[in-house]
């Protein structure tokens, strides 16, 4: 049976950033081993108490103090929100969850051959990684775990380099991806149930990068962006007329024709009289 340690009772006991990082990893390890002992092999952390502990730590201070685990998730979020079409914090949280699972698989079962190759056309990769991360981000983030693009199948596979990473490094990175998920969840809860646009998420991330607490970051974002319409209002303002489309000539919809359909049946004109 795995040895359990409860010497660290709360994240509140953490002091300087280096100790915070080590103590957070220890809390994460204890939670993981406790779940495995209970027969729960759903490895990705869903420990609600640990979520609340980490979110409490992130809420009140500089996020970078907590994210000092070998990953800069706020930079990843900023790049994705700026460049990936349609990506939001919820999608990024799912991508971080997949990365956490990949790290835990290597941490717990480094000998398993199936974990040595990540298929970039697999369902999980296609649905959760590709929509949220650029190919450069994929290379960088999976590279942290020891993967690199296969020379033979450059855009299809990521292969694990040999030798593998030390287990303590893999555990630390698993925890780093978990903390990134906590950050996403915290920012989403701060934005609230209002259907705000991606500008809110991006600005909040950028304010957090400046070292602001969650409340200050939110206040600054409100000052800058509260005049923007909420997403529901924006959809109402930008809704096009229902009887228009891109493919019908003006003789049918009463508006000036902006293009012609070169595949239109030449006999249709006579039949439409």
UniProtKB/TrEMBL annotation:
A Pfam family (short name) is SPATA2_PUB-like
Query: Its domain of life?
Result: Eukaryota
A GO cellular component annotation in the UniProt record = cytoplasm
What residue stretches are annotated with the Spermatogenesis-associated protein 2 PUB-like domain?
Answer: 75-211
Q: Which InterPro entries match?
A: SPATA2_PUB-like
Question: What family classification does the UniProt entry report for this protein?
Answer: Belongs to the SPATA2 family.
Show the PANTHER family listed in the entry.
SPERMATOGENESIS-ASSOCIATED PROTEIN 2-LIKE PROTEIN, SPERMATOGENESIS-ASSOCIATED PROTEIN 2/TAMOZHENNIC
User: What protein is this chain from?
Assistant: Spermatogenesis-associated protein 2 PUB-like domain-containing protein
The organism encoding this protein is Coregonus suidteri
Query: Lineage, please?
Result: Eukaryota, Metazoa, Chordata, Craniata, Vertebrata
């Amino acid at each position: 049976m795995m040895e359990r340690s409860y010497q660290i009772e709360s994240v509140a006991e953490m002091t300087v950033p280096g100790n915070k990082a080590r103590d957070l990893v220890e809390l994460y390890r204890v939670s993981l081993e406790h779940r495995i002992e209970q027969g729960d092999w759903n490895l990705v952390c869903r420990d609600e108490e640990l979520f609340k502990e980490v979110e409490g730590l992130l809420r009140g201070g500089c996020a970078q103090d907590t994210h000092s685990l070998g990953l800069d998730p706020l930079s990843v979020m900023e790049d994705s929100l700026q460049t990936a079409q349609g990506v939001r914090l919820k999608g990024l949280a799912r991508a971080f969850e997949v990365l956490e699972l990949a790290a835990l698989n290597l941490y717990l079962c480094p000998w398993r051959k199936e974990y040595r190759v990540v298929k970039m056309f697999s369902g999980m990769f296609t649905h959760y990684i590709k929509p949220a991360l650029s190919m450069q981000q994929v290379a960088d983030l999976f590279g942290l775990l020891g993967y690199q693009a296969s020379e033979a199948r450059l855009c299809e596979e990521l292969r694990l380099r040999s030798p593998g990473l030390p287990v303590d490094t893999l555990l630390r990175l698993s925890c780093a991806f978990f903390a990134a998920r906590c950050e996403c969840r915290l920012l989403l809860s701060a934005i609230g149930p209002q259907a705000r646009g991606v500008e809110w998420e991006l600005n909040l991330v950028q304010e957090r990068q400046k070292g602001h607490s969650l409340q200050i970051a939110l206040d600054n974002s409100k000052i800058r962006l509260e005049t923007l319409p909420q997403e529901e209002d924006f959809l109402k303002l930008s809704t096009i007329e229902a009887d228009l489309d891109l493919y019908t000539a003006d003789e049918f919809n009463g508006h000036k024709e902006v293009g012609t359909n070169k595949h239109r049946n030449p006999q249709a004109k006579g039949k439409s009289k």
